């Protein structure tokens, strides 16, 4: 099933069930008002939501209304955890190669993750407010999952069973704040403003065979100012699957229902031709990666970061060509 | 007023108002069931809680019952944000001196903070489950505040107005996991398991003159296995006050109601005698600091980290000698 959260002026919005084709929706009132409530008691509540979903898909839900992603908050407008991985090692390799630093061998066995702020997420069509262009505004197109309870010391396989929903994320990053911040040694903080999520979050069965053991085998499209810059394959090059990412968190603590875990920037390796030249036909899921490639090839980056009023659209289509999660489609604006 | 959250089998527990002397409590049922609910609508709900608090203190609350901190969850059993500072630069200086690295000059102007996990906090008397003693188990005695909404780009003075409640924290740390984790460059993650908080959180007026512009001028006591190891002054040596810490978060994002912001390990400078020898008469608020001092003075640490079944008690008394927040009093146990 597909779930979304509609704006109603409250902090957590109203849970709605959305039809498979994203054309209609229905309030889940009477079942659960908020998505967190459903996650807290998933075994009891999700079958009721599933029933409503089927009625909606059959065109028989009496109070259905046209679905409008502009009315969406993030599926979880605020969450108890947002832990983001860097599961595509190719991205790490490129960024490090650009600054002439090697990728430590342990990075291939031990996931890199950071803890993000989760008190104030953006809806899929909300503006992205940033104080200054000079901060180096970048998008990061990612896949994210929402978990149920996963116990401390769970294995990656056990952690896979704890995945409830999948969605897309725009992990907005302020690149020019990152070097000084990481040099302080405590990780990202001011360089990661509010993250945005796709209009709907979907259960695993919606992905069909495209979901395979913690990886989504579909293409993540990123369109910057109307120009398609990324058509990245999210499946085969995901070094750590979502079960491994969740198990990484679980090493020393429980993961509780409603935790959001991100994949990090989806990234594909370049292709080296007979002439020895490498190209990246699948494009990029964040500008930093494009700039890293330019630095490796030309000695310096030429693509600039985002400006106020730039737009970014992030979407993923299923094997049937239909949008799975709806599109993240946002404008960067000056924070006032 | 003083607020706590009683265990009731649910994820968020039940909000109770606790008398000033911590002897009695009263359910806030009919006003607000959960502390987050009160924080979400503080202007409307807090005066009603305050009325109940006064009735309780006057011995006139009809359904009052004896307060028992063992029934407490963390005041916020799970939160939308837990951002912990390192506001006592003396602590940073000692830890860095022990590993012969300087404190960068910027650390005196720009707070050091990390984003912590907030989906699964521990109550004040809950056991601390850790998978292995070899992880290097340490306590960290801290002060923490809970905020209302604070807008992006707020000044430290504006941020001070956003502080709703104050409490104590035990930011449990796994020291032997830290070096490898920080070397990865993304900050703490597995080295910071679930944090515990004091039985009650209190409004600023409860601190009277001990609260001065974002600092708590009282002594934080840490007792390890029954031995008092820390009697640290929390006020004068707090390099960055809570308004500055919150404003640091606000540089690029909004801080939303129910965010918890920590001070980092409370730490006091040593005293150098006429013989040129430095001692630390106020003790320490985490073992890592004691070990840093030993390393600086003797070339190596001799105090070992905590073992399973060790206990740690963290408490702060007001000018009247009474416990302000109740005591964090926990046992370290092996996670199963």
Could you provide a short overview of the structure?
By secondary structure, chain A is of the alpha+beta class. Chain A is 19% helix and 27% strand. Chain A has 2 domains: 1-67, no CATH class; 77-334, Fumarylacetoacetate hydrolase, domain 2.
Structural overview:
- The structure is a homodimer.
- With about 325 residues, chain A is of the alpha+beta class.
- Chain A folds into two domains: about 1-65, no CATH class; about 75-335, Alpha-Beta Complex (Fumarylacetoacetate hydrolase, domain 2).
- Chain A is about 20% helix and about 25% strand.
- Chain A contains seven helices and 23 strands.
- Chain A has helices spanning about 35-40, 40-55, 90-100, 155-160, 180-185, 240-250, 285-300, and strands at about 1-5, 15-20, 25, 65, 70-75, 80-85, 115, 130, 135-140, 140-145, 165-170, 175, 195, 200, 210, 215, 220-225, 225-235, 260, 270, 280, 310-315, 330-335.
- In chain A, the strands form six sheets. In chain A, strands 1, 2, 3, 4, 5 and 14 form a six-stranded antiparallel sheet that branches.
- In chain A, strand 1 (about 1-5) and strand 2 form a beta hairpin.
- The first copy, chain A, is globular.
- Chain A starts with a strand and ends with a strand.
- Chains A and B meet through strand 7 and helix 5 of A and strand 7 and helix 5 of B.
- Chains A, B: This is Fumarylacetoacetate hydrolase.
- Chains A, B: Keywords: Hydrolase.
